[in-house]
Amino acid sequence: MNSLCLYNGKVYNKIYSFKYNDIDFIICKENNKYFYFKHDIVNDKDIYTPYDRWLKVFEFNDEGKSKIDSFIDSLNEKNLKNDKEIKNLVDSFIYSKKKTKKKIKIFNKYFILLFISLSALIFGGVTLFNWYSEGEDVHHLMNNVLKNTKIEENIAFSATEIPEVTGEAAENHKYGEDYWNYMKTTMISVNFDELKNINPDTKGWIYVNNTNVNYPFVQGGDNEFYLNHSYDKSYNVAGWLFADYKSNFDNFLKNTVIYGHGRVDQVMFGSLERVLDESWYTNKENQIIKLSTPEKNTLWQIVSIYTIPSESYYLTHTFENDESYQKFIDTMLSRSIYDFGINVATKDRLLTLSTCLDFNGNRIVIQAKLIKEQNR
């Protein structure tokens, strides 16, 4: 026998209780018509609230009725033989909804994962294509530059060289045991006429042995523009090699700085990662950087190579006095991954090449001192 449901003085036959959307309610029957009530327990007593007072908690179908309301209507339309069929129909209704929701959740989960994966794949593909395209633009531009630029090599014994080393300094190899060999090393001499026509910001040409660094470099009014503009000033995230806007190529400062992106496609300063290999930095032929400007041809002897988190100290251009410059020199030499055995004095001029090592802000730094120059 069914239990009774008493509500507002009326007695209903309680057919079945169940939970839907985390709400407890019951189905009752009166005069062969089915009703449902929200079920609560207040002060240990069963409380039943008619559906018309809490109908808004349910989702609505296209007919404007709640899904549970429509279900009850369907019960009343059926010719049910006994109340047990109610339980079966309710179970079917409840569990089918749960399965549907579960399927929807699973579908949404895998759809989101698929969407993220496809988005990452598309983004990665576009990024790789752009990198490839930007690198190809650099190669194409450099091919044209090299075809139209006259680059000569000459020994130029008449160059204005570092004063001759004699006495105790020579015995102690103050300037390095290969000093005299480097004095005979050829310098590059570049005709800048066509380069200036392409870009008036051109300040020189730099060559680093056994790397891809063989480019003209520029100098803008700030250190931002050439981070994402090519030699012809077209937009390109590969950027270009550029000197710090504070540098002076008419009269070298204590420290001259040139920047370039460390790209994985090896353009710009990307190939400078090679300088961290022992086989590279111990090769004496690699320890000379050649730099040509419209005013001078120069040779620079590498004295320090290191990696370091991003900072501004090694980018210092001028110094208050010889004491502060000597402190800077000592710091730079102490950072080197290899002892080049070269003495650097406060009268020397330094060249600093700076590029990114990774995406964490670390830098590769190469520093060299001026050992030979020729006025043009």
Mean model confidence by pLDDT: 77
Q: What is the H-and-E element order? A: EEEEEHHEEHHEHEEEEHEEHEE
- Cα-atom Rg, whole angstroms? 40 Å
List how many beta strands DSSP finds. Answer: 16
Instruction: Give the CATH topology of the largest domain.
Output: Sortase, Chain: A
Outline, from the CA principal axes? elongated
The figure for the number of domains is: 2
Description:
There is one protein chain. This protein has helices at 67-77, 84-147, 167-171, 179-183, 193-198, 278-281, 322-335, and strands spanning 3-7, 10-20, 23-30, 33-42, 45-50, 151-154, 160-161, 187-190, 202-208, 214-218, 242-243, 255-259, 288-292, 296-309, 350-356, 362-375. It is of the alpha+beta class and 376 residues long. The chain contains 7 helices and 16 strands. The radius of gyration is 40 Å and the shape is elongated. The strands form 3 sheets. Strands 7, 9, 10, 11, 12, 13, 14, 15 and 16 form a 9-stranded mixed beta sheet that branches. The protein folds into 2 domains: 1-147, no CATH class; 152-375, Sortase (Sortase, Chain: A). Helix content is 29%, strand content 29%.
